[in-house]
Amino acid sequence: MMADNPTLKLSAARNLHLAAQGLLTPPAKNATKKQLLATIRQMAALQIDTINVVARSPYLVLWSRLGSYETVWLNELLEEGKLFEYWSHEACFLPIEDYYLYRHQMIAPHGLGWKFNQRWLLENKKEVELVRKQIHSNGASRSLDFAKRDGKAGGWWEWKPEKRSLEVLFTMGELMVAKRHNFQRVYDLRERVHPKWEDQHDLIHPLECQRQQVLLAVKALGCAKATWITDYFRMAKLDASNQAAALAEQGLLLTANVAGWDTPVYVHPDHADLLEQAAEGNLKATATQILSPFDPVVWDRKRAIELFDFDYKLECYTPAEKRRYGYFSLPILRRGAIIGRMDAKAHRQQGRFEVKSLHMEAEVKISATLVRDVIGSITKFAQWHGTPELDLSSLKTTEFYHNNS
């Protein structure tokens, strides 16, 4: 029987985290749509990003866990009402059963967030009402269904008024994303997309929502320092009653120690068996996978440093001359460690997957087995992506090199 507050080796804590994230062992063959939904539920949030130099991030995050699968399943699950979109860690696909955790944010004035403030509603009442009327009368609509009047395109500050109104109404919960068409949002009324929800019956207190999100974050993380928890869903400061230590005192969380750390980690009771296996050294990491920059394993830079000793920053927003690892470098996970990163580009029309650079962490020992594992994972990704020709010609050498070389 496992002792209270067991002490884990750092490698065991990593493996517990990877097990909770579905990344401990290689994917099984013949993934199904049901498994895809289960994978999103396991992570609790699938971050959305539109950069597509390789597969768009949500598809890559799922591939890392499922292997080859049909990307259309993600939109099908959204259309079927098993998923919804909202602001969580960032914009995310979320399990529909967790809608209640976010509803109070939608209807509270402060829930609009820094990107979507009430000034827009007050200063653009006419535009907002036109958007409301069109969707009420004409049904689900894209931003493209509204005429562009100002000739501008680009980010938030250059969105046409209708697009900004759609996003504000989405953030307020008046609209939901009914589906995506060519990865663009199609908006419809909340009551048509999620007709089962009734505020007067289904709302729960925000503090209880916060508590449930803390528990869900710890479960998704496998093991978590208290300082890691709020980032997972970008939560505000926790109420004292919802601090991890308080929840552990109530028996809602388990505690453990990690050798060399001066603060405990917390584990969800649903992972008690995994914790016992980790403590006994029986969780073995065998997967080698390419990760998205927006994978939950690395989206918190501080956590990635503390848990994996991996300092990761996405450099696509950094001027080209200042980039160290490339525009869209992808972390490489191998057997419980993040061993390096790859900058790549998929040339879809040519069926060619270009590996621009490979950087191994300084302490990684290069071996034939490591090379086989990494190239094998890259090859599988390229094949699934529809770019089966693996192009290594951009590398300084066809072998790996360390990031300090």
Automatic annotation (TrEMBL):
| InterPro entries, per the entry | AlkZ-like
The record's section on Pfam families has:
AlkZ-like (PF06224)
Domain of life assignment: Bacteria
- What PANTHER family has UniProt attached to this entry? CYTOPLASMIC PROTEIN
Q: What is this protein called?
A: Winged helix DNA-binding domain
Q: Which organism is it from?
A: Solimicrobium silvestre
